[in-house]
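Just wondering, can you check both lines?
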Amino acid sequence: MKNQKGITLVSLVITIIVMAILASVGTIAGLDSIKTSQKVTFITQLEMIQKKVNTIYEKRKANVEDKKYYDNLGQELVGQTLERAYEILKDSQVNGFKYFSTKDLEKLDLDNISQDVLINFDTRQVYSYTGIIIDGVTYYCLEDIPNYTGYNIEYINKNNISPSFSVEVTKQIDKWKISLNNIVYNSNVDSGELRHKLYTKQNWILDGENTSFIVDEPGLYDICLTDKAGNSTIIQKMIYFDYVEDGLIAYYDAECNVENGHNDKSNIWKDLSRNNNNATLIGYSKETFFNKNELIFDGENNYVDTGINLNTLVDSSKKEFSLSATIHIQDNNNYRAIMGSHEEETISGIFMHFENGNLESSYGNKTTWVRNKIDSSNLTGRIINITSIYKENESIDVYINGELKNSVPITGKIELKDTLYIGKSYNLSNSNRLFKGTMQNIKIYNKALTKQQVEQNYKIDKYRYGII
């Protein structure tokens, strides 16, 4: 009997222990079940709210009245809700979010929601005000929940791919219409904000959601399109000034020095005459390139090789051409060159440089040099426009700021054998023969400009660069 009672007692104890274990397992399983249910409810409700917010987002874009209506719903973030928003959103921007209680959500036709939320209609973001704890970590939005593969929403503020577009310019009477075409938004939006400005200006002009704008001033324009995620794309477009085009074989402009815009570090100076006479910068380091509307010459290493042999470009029956330079002179010591095509070994060519206190425009060969000299003592430190016009068997005419300063007769033919350089007029590279200062633009013509044409070009540069 004792043995039987003893066995029965042990069995009872074991049974109690087993039941306790089973009960604890059941409790854990029950808690897990509750947690799973809470997680499902949390996710389901946020998905419902997110779907509604997406619908509202499209309505607000399509209709002004809808935008006004929905923008008046919810509560502004102030006091406790603002502090809580900072805790929840962390790195996200608080601006644009509103607090929605369960009562506020009913106005969005969202019934039976058991949690308050923060909503930003502009970015379609939804954050739970209380969040849910999973493995000791609190989560507030769908995208942050580990292994979440449900409702897939690409939040606008998470997109970092900028929009793309092309630009078209249409000439009107005294105006130009600039239009954006082929616009592609790389986020879930179909609109953006357009703004523009002249490249050399600081202040932008806002065009809103328009896709075109009108300008009445030539120049290089920055055109910026920003999508609702804050991603921006800037394209530059040049509206050309009305310089004389007749006989223009090369036109280099420091403001628009590349294909259709500006690049401070480009070692190619684009020919805007469309004759493809692109020039190459020689001797430039990273410190000495382009500023916004000028090319810097240090007077020691820098010059530009146009690759142009004037002999192949001028009219074969009558050799005449015009060289125009708008420059800012820092040093006019002897042999500081502006431009030229001069081969010292054969002693022939043409050039513009400074010598013995004069600005000299010359041409020559082994036997004859013709020199047009103008006092240059008052030119240092100024931006000026210089145009030298060479006419075979006639004259060298030099204009400064649109005014004829001197004309020297020529007898004989002009010999042109070497490449035309900017900032250097000799084939040799003595540093004291290199230009020191900046250049705004260079124009080369295979004809002799008239007085009226010289004045036309000067008036444009006077306006552009503030020539006094």
Q: What stands out?
A: The chain has three domains: 20-155, 164-239, 248-465. Residues 20-155 form one domain. Confidence is low (pLDDT under 50) at residues 1-6, 25-29.
